[in-house]
Amino acid sequence: MRLARINLFSKTIIACVFFLLISSLTGNAAEIENGLADCVRINDDSARLKCFDELAKKQIPVKENEAVTPAVIQEPPVAVEKVILSQPQEENQHLSVMEKQWDMRLAPHKERNILALWPYRPCYFLPVAYNSSPNRDAALEYDPDAKAQYNEVKFQLSFKFKIWEDFFRGSLQETIEKSTGIRGMDVWIAYTQQSFWQLYNDAFSAPFRDTNYEPELLLNFRMQHEIPGLMGTKLQFINAGFNHQSNGRSEPLSRSWNRIVGNVGLEKTFGTEKKDSFNLLLKTWYRIPEDEDDDDNPDLSSYVGYGELWGMLYWKNHRFSLMLRNNLRSENKGAVQADWSFPLPLIGDKVCGYIQYFNGYGEGLLDYNTSINRISAGFMLVDWK
């Protein structure tokens, strides 16, 4: 009984297939209809299937022998929903160095980069940091006999993260942009740590000679406007905020100060992809006064001044930078720092070689009043975000 049902089901499927085949063939429509009607009226399954077979054989030769030009079947137009993919603007596809550093896309961010770590100042590790004029006045700790060696390790960690994106939004932001040119304002928190490590000083247990801790709160105003007459140079950003720097030591080695900072970033790009550019960063600050009894370094501004100027050239995966600083006083105490970072073969594009030269005052808080002459070599972390 079960076998009979399966055979019946199979025959029905075959009949349907033949029905579809016959329906698709060109021929006499009336003859096909009559033949199908006759086959349907047959009660016996085998006879009915044979009827369908004979009807199909009659139609197929006609199809093969007649020279019939096949009709072009035009399907009715289908209403297809037109999907428009929003292509990012050219300015968003190729961000410049400063635009990447401060996350200045023009497209909506949708706050996906909130609390994500971003590079701030260069992160580097310099195992060779030779100082030809170390500070002999400051002991390594409280031992007056613990003196610094000429060579040590210098390294820096620096990062920032955004805690608030587009402080003003909607119609208010549009009004601000029309009246001031500010395209948006983000709130950032930054942290930099610079350490001087007497790694090779075995006589005094290889101590950290000094470490400077520098947290910042910054308001970054996204500008991204070309400056007329400067060949495409852009005013990329203006940021202002609060900066604290200290070395976390107790007296008599304690050093610290608080500042109100203001920075201006200019950039000139080369090429369509904006990989090569020249950046000019003007950093200024105002020291917040402290009580004389609490001030560890009252003459700090006499040595580090009130600002510094950075020029950075990015060219073919190389980075050249120069920092100039002066106290703008008659005794003329200042500093200069020259850097060069370059690709390293067989290592990849996340780490590069780095050479740094510093001469002057204010390299670190412990040595702010001592002129330092240092040449360093090591590695820099590149695009670690």
Give a summary of the structure in a few sentences:
With 385 residues, this protein is of the alpha+beta class. It has helices spanning 2-24, 29-40, 45-65, 90-93, 97-101, 170-180, 300-304; strands at 117-119, 123-131, 151-164, 184-197, 208-226, 234-246, 256-270, 276-287, 307-315, 318-326, 334-343, 351-360, 372-381. The protein has a twelve-stranded antiparallel β-barrel with strand order 2-3-4-5-6-7-8-9-10-11-12-13.
How would you describe this structure to a colleague?
- A twelve-stranded antiparallel β-barrel has the order 2-3-4-5-6-7-8-9-10-11-12-13.
- Mean pLDDT is 82; it is low at 1-12, 15-30, 61-73 and 78-92.
- The chain is of the alpha+beta class and 385 residues long.
- 21% of the residues lie in helices and 38% in strands.
- It folds into two domains: 2-65, no CATH class; 95-381, Beta Barrel (Outer membrane phospholipase (ompla), Chain C).
- The protein contains seven helices and 13 strands.
